[in-house]
Amino acid sequence: MSEKNVSHTKWMKRAIFLASLGKNTTSPNPSVGAVIIDKNGNLISEGFHYRTGMPHAEAMAFNNLKKDAKGGTMYVNLEPCCHHGKTPPCVSKVISSGIKKIFISIQDPDKRVAGKGIKLLKEAGIQVELGLCKKESLELNKAFIHRNKTEKAFGVLKWAMSIDGRIGLKNGKSKWISNEESRSLVHSFRAEFDAIIIGGNTLRKDNPLLTSRGLKNPEPLRVIFTKSLDLPSRSNLWDCDKAKTIIIYDSSTANEGYLNRIPKCVEVKKISSDNPELISRILAKRGCNKVLWECGPRLATAAIKSNCIQEVIAFIAPKILGGENSMNPLSDLDFSEMKEIIELRNSQFGLIGNDICLKSSLDY
C-alpha cells in the first residue's frame, strides 16, 4: 500500500471511530463520522452524529472548522444524505464548502438516499471515491443496513445455559445459571439495543426489569409478546418511569378481557397471528435498528424460523443440570437432515469469570 493510500485509510478509520461514539444512541439513524483535511493534508475538523434530531456528522464537522475547507478532502463512512428530515441535507453543505474530494466508505441503503447523494456530489464537480474501509463500515452499521433492506429489525438472541445445554431445571427454576459477572455484562449489552423482547411466559415466571441499569438513556423499549394476554396485574415492566413498555398480542387467540389489567402507561398493539416477523416489522417501523430477544424456547425458535435472528449470544456456565426434561434454549426446529441445520459463523469467544461467552452470526 502506498504512503498516500495509508494516509487515506488512516483518516477513514478515524471517521469510523468517531461514528462508533454514537453507535448506541443514533437510532433510527446510522452511526456516522466525518473528517475534513485541508489541501496540505492537515486535519482541520471532525464530527460525528450523536442522536436523531442533532446535527449529522458532516454538519458537525463543518461547524467545528478551524479554517476554510475550500480545496480540502472529506472522509465519511456513509454516503451523505440528500433529503430533508429533522436536519437539512448534508450534501448541500459539502457542495457549498468548496471541498474538492470526498471519500465515502459505503452507500446509504435508505431509499431516500441510496446513491442519490453521490450523484449530486459528482454533478457538482466533487471527486468521489467509494469503498475505502468498506468491511469496517458495513460491520458498524449492519443493523441500520439490515432494517433498511429487509424492513425488519436486526435481531440478536441471548440465553444462558449449563455446559450440558440446559437453561433451567424441569420445574422451571433457573436462578442463577450464569455468574454475577455475566449477568452484569448483559446489562451493558442491553445498552446496545433499541428494544428487548420477551414472551408472556418469561414475564409471568421471572418478572424481569429488562433495563441497562441506567447505562442507556432512554432505556430500550421493553416488548412483551403474548398469545393469551393473561399477564400479571403487578410487574416490574408496568413501571413506565424506568422505561417504556409495549404489549404486542395475537388477536386471534388472546382474551382481550384481560386488557383491564394493563396500566394505562403501557402501550398495547394487536397483530393478526403469532408470527414473530410481525413484531420485528412493527419495531423496524418505530425506528428500532437492533433488538434483543431474551425470550423462552418457543418464541426463540419461532423467531429463528421466521429469520428474525441474525446473531446469537450464549453464556455457557461450567455447571451440569442434567435431566431429559430439563429446559433447553430452543424447541424443535424440525430438522431431519444434517444439511438443514443452521451453522454459526464469525464466532467470538470470551471468558467471563468461569463462564464462556459466545457471540456468533447465523448462517441461514
CATH architecture of the largest domain: 3-Layer(aba) Sandwich
Mean pLDDT, all residues: 92
For the terminal residues, how far apart are their CA atoms? 36 Å
> How much is the radius of gyration in Å?
23 Å
Q: Please list the strands of the largest sheet in the order they lie side by side.
A: 10-9-8-7-11-6-12-14-13
Helix content: 25-40%
Let me know the number of strands.
Answer: 14
Structural class: alpha/beta
* CATH topology tier name of the largest domain: Dihydrofolate Reductase, subunit A
Number of domains: 2
The helix/strand order is HEEHEHEHEHHEHEHEEEHEHEEE
CATH hierarchy class name of the largest domain: Alpha Beta
Largest sheet: 9 strands, mixed
User: Could you state the CATH homologous superfamily of the largest domain?
Assistant: Dihydrofolate Reductase, subunit A
- Alpha plus pi helix count: 10
Low-confidence stretches: none
What would the principal axes of the Cα set say about the shape? Answer: elongated
Strand content: 15-25%
Pfam family, one: RibD_C
Pathway: Cofactor biosynthesis; riboflavin biosynthesis; 5-amino-6-(D-ribitylamino)uracil from GTP: step 3/4; Cofactor biosynthesis; riboflavin biosynthesis; 5-amino-6-(D-ribitylamino)uracil from GTP: step 2/4
Family: In the C-terminal section; belongs to the HTP reductase family.
GO molecular function: 5-amino-6-(5-phosphoribosylamino)uracil reductase activity; diaminohydroxyphosphoribosylaminopyrimidine deaminase activity; metal ion binding; NADP binding
